[in-house]
Design brief:
This protein has helices at about 45-55, 60-75, 90-100, 115-125, 160-175, 190-210, 215-225, 230-240; strands at about 15, 20, 80-85, 105-110, 130-135, 145-155, 175-190, 230, 245-255, 255-260. By secondary structure, the chain is of the alpha/beta class. Helix 3 links the parallel strand 3 (about 80-85) and strand 4 (about 105-110). The longest helix has 17 residues, at about 190-210. Bound molecules: ligand GEK and 3-phenylpyruvic acid. 3-phenylpyruvic acid binds next to helix 1 and helix 7. Homodimer.
Length: about 260
């Protein structure tokens, strides 16, 4: 039987149908010198994703587990919880573990077929109390309605900046009064000196987690055009513009932040 920790790391080797899921596969994607191409959430990334994200995002397990707890506080009976850019469903699984409200459903969305397929395996193995439906589609095509919680855990940063405002309008419109957006992002600091510091501290974190200088620099190149970070002020201005009244930044470590954004 599969066992997952709260971040989706697989702690036992198992078979589901004819799919064999490896035990905590190590991310070595950028370990050899290569002609670096744009970062994509393909099969090779999906296979190592729990290890990659855990070693790359400071506080990831705390963030995921706390998102689950915050969802439980805000989940309204008979409502929808959306996990946009769910990857392997870590936040959905945490939410399903903690939610006590009746008749909620979790909609876990990802446009990467490799991620969505693997997410489905995790969901089946986990046997969530609150049902989780995995949908392979682009956030742009998803209707958001009767939502009490919308989770975007490190997903908005992969949406082209000019498309972000429309997504935020859609989320605001689809949230019920009193609902929340749980937004985590890699953040740029608004001074050059401060930005250099948080980037350097993040790289030091990755080094301590076993990534080499080559891995750090090749991944940085791969992410350059696909992951476009903004400052906290830019996020705050856009959230305020679409109508959110309260932005609570509850987690920060270096250039990573997580917010509860409340629709009053
Ligand atoms: N337009 C889009 N539509 C749908 N999905 C998308 C889109 N763009 C990117 N994605 C998906 O967003 C996810 C971002 S990872 C989220 C981690 C997860 N939330 C976690 O809690 O473990 C963050 C990271 O790897 O830093 C990937 O799975 C993409 O396929
Ligand atoms: O690895 C990095 O440098 C990051 O910024 C985080 C990350 C984690 C997983 C996929 C893409 C980016």
């Amino acid at each position: 039987m599969l066992e997952l920790d709260c971040t989706g790391r697989i702690t036992r080797y198992f078979y589901l149908g004819h799919h064999a899921i490896m035990q905590d596969v190590k991310d070595t994607i950028y370990s050899q010198p290569q002609q670096v191409s744009e970062f994509r959430f393909d099969q090779s990334v999906a296979e190592v994703f729990p290890d990659m994200i855990q070693r790359s995002v400071p506080g990831y397990s705390t963030i995921v587990d706390t998102i689950g707890q915050i969802c439980a506080r805000y989940a309204q009976p008979d409502s929808n919880i959306y996990d946009l850019g769910c990857s392997l469903g870590a936040a959905s699984l945490a939410a399903s573990k903690y939610i006590q409200s009746d008749n909620c459903q979790i909609l876990a969305i990802d446009n990467s077929p490799a991620m969505a397929q693997r997410c489905e395996l995790h969901v089946q193995a986990f046997k969530a109390a609150t049902p989780i439906s995995v949908i392979c589609d682009d956030i742009q095509n998803i209707d958001i309605k009767n939502a009490s919680c919308v989770v975007m855990n490190f997903t908005l940063q992969f949406i082209p900046p000019e498309q972000r405002i429309d997504i935020m309008h859609k989320i605001y419109a689809g949230l019920n009064p009193g609902g929340v957006l749980l937004l985590s992002e890699k953040i740029s600091h608004d001074t050059e000196q401060g930005n250099d510091l948080v980037i350097d501290l993040h790289h030091e974190f990755k080094r301590r987690n076993g990534y080499s200088e080559l891995e750090i620099s090749q991944k940085r190149t791969a992410l350059e055009d696909v992951m476009r970070t903004e400052t906290f002020e830019q996020h705050k201005d856009r959230l305020t513009l679409v109508g959110f009244t309260d932005i609570v930044r509850w987690f920060t470590c270096f250039n990573f932040a997580s917010m509860v954004v409340i629709k009053g």
